[in-house]
């Protein structure tokens, strides 16, 4: 239902009315024509809502919609509202609403009004507002702007099929049989009496846009969409409009897939004599290859990313830049893209949204994660918070004590992309080294390690220099370092030797060197 009309509405979308200039004011009704002006970002408090349907878990696209609404609300000192659009009872997914709540909370997007928080304009779950919609549907029935339709499913299917065969084709199917019917009965839907021609709509990002249904005048059909279903539940279009009005929503930021529905929404506003909110339809998210996001990349449940060690700060930073970028105060000035939520709130403006599809690159997410993790680990309070979060799990794996964990974490901080790296790459700091798959770095490794054991390792530098000097240029400093690393960690990169000395202590290092010698001997 969502975008059924995108292709079949007349091409005027692309050709006629896609006025590139931005509208002058943010109240769409007041915009008769458009003219080039750059300021549309509101200066008074915005009431923005995130209106998900609990039909699945939140993914990157819906998180971005939530975030942009939040940013717009908070940037203007307004309110961020959560409304659960659950009128399509057949599509509900168990746990989806909880997932929406948990995701917003984890990302730090605080809800001002919502199903749990309450608020002046509740209830905020559409399934609990049936009586309200009934009142407004009755209003349209009384005004003659809506009518009851008793047509059977078979008849409607037949109309749909026959519409497809018309030449020229039409994309609207209903023939208005019930507009003047005398029929009465308990089972009916309510249809909106749609206008002959839809008014142009104003979008703050796209300008003025027009969509018109395509008609076949020999066999006239109408775009009289259903507003109340047989079960008395409203359809998306109807509930969405009634609620945005009653909840005093000033701005609607939503995905571009809803753009073709907006003329219908405008028509409903007009029927009630209400002013529509300002709309911003944000572009699709695509993967780098410019396909729609696949399940594996962007479409995944946000909590899978959490499990992979992604921080909410990094995710929010990453998602904020899908279609928006902070502006430079002066040309040429470099602006850091690494920002915390408060900073993004401060800098956010709908004047700097981009129109093209936003590309999602996983590597960028991990790059943000590295930065945010580094900053957090270098902040004394946040460092302790991360320790409290990760130490309990980690101590179960290794039995290590907390002070040692903290010391090790401080040393590896610059090397971490996610906290999971700690567990995946630094277990050797907490338990014996497994040299099974490790190859000695050079042919002298065994000899080098034996000499180190004989020397005075408490003075690492002179110990290493002596081995190099005694070798008659056969052994380089690098050979010694790599051999030592191999014995201590089983790998060629990691911490510096003095850091290992400080963390593990002389006795442990000697033990590891001895084990490495035995390992090489056994293999040869
Ligand atoms: N319930 C719709 C959705 O799931 C909301 C669309 C809108 O914001 O109007 O995306």
Automatic annotation (TrEMBL):
Pfam families tied to this protein: Anticodon_2 (PF19269), tRNA-synt_1c (PF00749)
> Where is the protein localized?
Mitochondrion
MF term (GO), any: zinc ion binding
GO annotations of cellular component type: mitochondrion
Q: What class of enzyme is it?
A: ligase
Enzyme Commission number, as recorded: 6.1.1.17
Which domain of life does this protein belong to? Answer: Eukaryota
Every Glutamyl/glutaminyl-tRNA synthetase class Ib catalytic domain range: 46-365
Cite the Aminoacyl-tRNA synthetase class I anticodon-binding domain residue spans from the record: 389-517
UniProt cross-references to HAMAP family, sorted A to Z: Glu_tRNA_synth_type1
Tell me the protein's name.
Glutamate--tRNA ligase, mitochondrial
What lineage, starting at the top, does this entry show? Eukaryota, Fungi, Dikarya, Ascomycota, Saccharomycotina
């Amino acid at each position: 239902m969502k975008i059924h009309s995108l292709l079949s509405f007349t091409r005027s979308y692309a050709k006629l009315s896609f006025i590139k200039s931005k509208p002058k004011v943010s109240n769409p009704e007041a915009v008769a024509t458009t003219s080039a002006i750059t300021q549309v970002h509101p200066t008074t408090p915005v009431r923005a809502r995130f209106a998900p349907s609990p039909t699945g878990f939140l993914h990157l696209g819906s998180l971005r919609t939530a975030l942009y609404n939040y940013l717009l609300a908070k940037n203007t000192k307004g309110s961020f509202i959560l409304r659960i659009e659950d009128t399509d009872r057949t599509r509900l997914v168990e746990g989806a609403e909880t997932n929406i709540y948990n995701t917003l909370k984890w990302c730090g997007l605080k809800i001002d009004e919502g199903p749990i928080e309450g608020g002046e304009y509740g209830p905020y779950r559409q399934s609990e507002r049936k009586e309200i919609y009934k009142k407004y549907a009755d209003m349209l029935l009384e005004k003659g702007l809506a009518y009851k339709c008793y047509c059977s499913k078979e008849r409607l299917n037949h109309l749909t099929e026959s519409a497809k065969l018309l030449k020229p084709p039409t994309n609207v199917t209903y023939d208005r049989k019930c507009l003047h019917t005398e029929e009465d009965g308990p089972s009916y839907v309510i249809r909106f009496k749609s206008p002959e021609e839809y008014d142009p709509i104003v979008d703050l990002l796209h300008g003025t846009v027009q969509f018109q249904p395509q008609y076949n005048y020999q066999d006239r059909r109408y775009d009289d969409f259903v507003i109340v279903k047989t079960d008395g539940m409203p359809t998306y279009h109807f509930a969405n409009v009634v609620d945005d009005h009653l909840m005093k929503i000033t701005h609607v930021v939503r995905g571009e897939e809803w753009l073709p529905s907006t003329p219908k929404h405008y028509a409903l506003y007009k029927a009630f004599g209400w002013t529509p909110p300002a709309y911003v339809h944000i572009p699709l998210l695509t993967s780098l290859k410019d396909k729609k996001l696949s399940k594996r990349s962007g479409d995944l449940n946000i909590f899978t990313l959490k499990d992979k060690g992604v921080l909410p700060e990094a995710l929010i930073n990453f998602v904020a830049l899908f279609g928006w970028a902070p502006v430079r105060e002066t040309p040429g000035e470099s602006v850091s893209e690494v920002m915390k939520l408060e900073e993004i709130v401060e800098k956010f403006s709908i004047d700097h949204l981009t129109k093209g599809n936003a590309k999602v690159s996983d590597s960028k997410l991990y790059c943000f994660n590295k930065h945010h993790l580094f900053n957090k680990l270098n902040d004394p309070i946040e460092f302790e918070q991360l320790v409290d979060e990760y130490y309990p799990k980690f101590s179960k794996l290794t039995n290590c004590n907390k002070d040692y964990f903290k010391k090790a974490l401080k040393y590896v901080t610059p090397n971490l992309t996610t906290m999971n790296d700690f567990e995946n790459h630094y277990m050797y700091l907490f338990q014996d080294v497994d040299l099974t798959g490790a190859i000695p770095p050079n042919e002298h490794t065994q000899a080098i390690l034996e000499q180190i054991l004989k020397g005075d390792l408490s003075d690492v530098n002179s110990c290493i220099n002596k081995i190099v000097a005694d070798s008659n240029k056969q052994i380089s400093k690098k050979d010694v370092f790599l051999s030592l690393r191999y014995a201590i960690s089983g790998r060629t990169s990691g911490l510096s030797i003095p850091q290992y000395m400080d963390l593990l202590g002389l006795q442990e290092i000697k033990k590891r060197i001895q084990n490495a010698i035995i390992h090489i001997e056994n293999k040869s």
